[in-house]
Specification:
The chain is 23% helix and 18% strand. The protein is globular. The chain has 12 helices and 21 strands. The protein has 489 residues and is of the alpha/beta class. The strands form 5 sheets. Strands 13-12-11-7-10-9-8-14-15 form a 9-stranded mixed β-sheet. Strands 3-2-1-4-5-6 form a 6-stranded parallel β-sheet, with helices on both faces.
Length: 489
Amino acid sequence: MSSKISRRKFIHAGATAAAGLTVIPSKVLGKSMGYTAPSDKLNIAGVGVGGRGFSVLRHMESQNIVALADVDWKYSKPTFDYFPKAKRYYDYRKMYDDMGKTIDAVMVATSDHTHAIIAADAITMNKHVYVEKPLTHSVYESRLLTNLAKKYKVATQMGNGGASSPGLRQIIDWIWDGQIGEVRKVEAFTDRPFWPQGLSRPSEAERIPQTMDWNLFIGPAHRRSYHSIYTPWNWRGWWDFGTGALGDMACHILFPVFRALNLRYPSKVQGSSTMLMSESCPTAQMIKYVFPPRDNMPKVVMPEVEINWYDGGLTPFRPKGMINGKALNVEGGGVIFYGSKDTLICGSSGAEPYLLSGRTPSSPKTQREVTLSHQMDWVRACHQSPDNRVEAASDFSIAGPMNEMVVMGVLAVRLQGLNHELAWDGENMKFTNIPADATISTVVKDGFKISEGHPTFDKIWTEPENAQLFAQELIKHTYHNDWKLPDMP
């Protein structure tokens, strides 16, 4: 190969991506896929690079980390110091404008409410994208990223590392081999949150730090005054920015359920929680999903299945026959698959799966083994042409529909005041049984006080809203402050 041929001739980016050009796969050059030659390296940009974003980028540091964007430069300083050659930005849009012809791929680890727009803008520029979990903040955003990834044929990955784990593969193999029989009920839980939830909006604003661009943090959400309780990490507990314990952990914990049971869209959903506040996720919640029957597999029937989720310290009751003293919680949560022949139990992300009977079946291996890290498996996929690509373990064709299930749980909790099970039309992204005249209200402040030794609540509620319109806003957010998503393909 001529030394005058530039690396850019082989990287899927910009206008050349439309022609399906990509880095020459290492296997074509007679190398193992675990090796990356200097000319093969991707130019990766990170958006949201403090905290979790820093950890993800370090898993990709064998590539060229060329640009970093974050609204909070104090929180991101360790990342800036670690990658001193990378250009720094507050606004990812400025970064895209300046370096769009140089960047090949983008890692997104911002607050949940900006995942979709940052990733969508990158995809429409023909950039590969890696997006931390949860993939998006709403059902519509998940569907949008799924469809955009398919249209532009970029390599994608959601950052739920358990999707690449041996535990997940073992669970799928056992269930598809019929080892536990038909599964009609699943229970799952997490020990999260360990950040503040169940709160009212702070009544007083604080001074915005000089190292933060607060307007960029707000992005497409409603404007509000700065307060340190929102960020850099506690945004997970606020409805405008995060999705609570469910969004944080269900993409890990429910991914084995989604994959092993061949799930798609739920048909029914119902939520319950501790006091439901208008601004902040509840401290604990329960969600019931019902999925219709799926196509049967050669060795196992896939009947209607009920999946129950618990968080905030709530857990399922222990299954009959489980060893006393053995914890259900492994690495932050757990799952119980109740089969007609046996019960399968695992921890978060499919960790340490086992059968309650004590058997260890030798089932046929059906899943691709991921020998690289979750992050580098995505990098591998980026290096392959769309026509020959082996998709990453949690690419958007899987992660998008799976994330729709997760954020459906948010809808169930926020609509619990309707006091009935909600019927869901997944294909059209709408509820079918909310009465036209139904209204919904939530608590703004609980008004708790003790008067002469007696605890009392004087709750302040939001004004009643039309429930159909409220639900539609949760399904597809109105973007504010001149932010706009690309059109749905």
